Structure prediction request, 278 residues.
Amino acid sequence: MQIDEARRPGFADIDWSRPWFAPFAQRGARWQNAALTNYAALLAGMNADAAALGQTTGRGQRLAFIAQDDLPPGAAYEAHIGATGCVPTRHNLHDFFNASMWFAFPRIKAALNARQSAAIDVLGVGPTRGGVRDMLTLFDENALLFACADPSLGDALRGFDWRTLLVERRDAWGVACEVRCFGHALLEKLIVPFKACTGHAWIVHVPPEYFDWDADARDAWLDASVSAALLTTDALTSRLFAPLPVLGIPGWWPDNESAAFYDDVTVFRSGRRVRPIR
Prediction:
């Protein structure tokens, strides 16, 4: 189906009150205003923040943002970021949210870039990415971070046990589990939310005291833990993810206050049964 260009979502359509955008609202609203001014203003705002925080990419280069047209012809996107620290960025929502994650979860972004660059070193840039690069791209584009202090909640998610996770254990959300959106393509899709919008959840087992910390401390812990896992896990495959329909997350969408919301088997599907991963 073709998209009506007159109705294509733009920067003005970001609603920072949405629970998936709210954690990134402080910087995001400022960048949004710059993006609505012009492309140059957006890049300038991103680079001012990068310079102030001194962040680095996967191979220790200082983070910066450049216009997409400044990517040298024939250069691989991930390899260029690893070698120079410069992230080619277009004036669109997709790249806006990609840049946002370099600040929200800088270690995870650096780890993804390090693994992508290492894979390119070994295999080069071919017509296909290969399994590891495919998984890393899927994480970058569509991941949710599912933090849980109760392993049974992770088991319910992996087992497609929606009734347990989202209805019967609804009171556990916010005290024993929660979600952060990470994938920038997923965030772009959530500009106009729809029931079937599904993220790839990366389950992160957290200590019980995690839920006593403030949001910044939680995000810093997730950033350190997940980045370490990405750097040290040898067998990176899509099987490490569990699908999670975003609008089913308790508190994230008004309609899911009714248990009947989850009766839609076209969205809340039964799936493969796997042994829990610890």
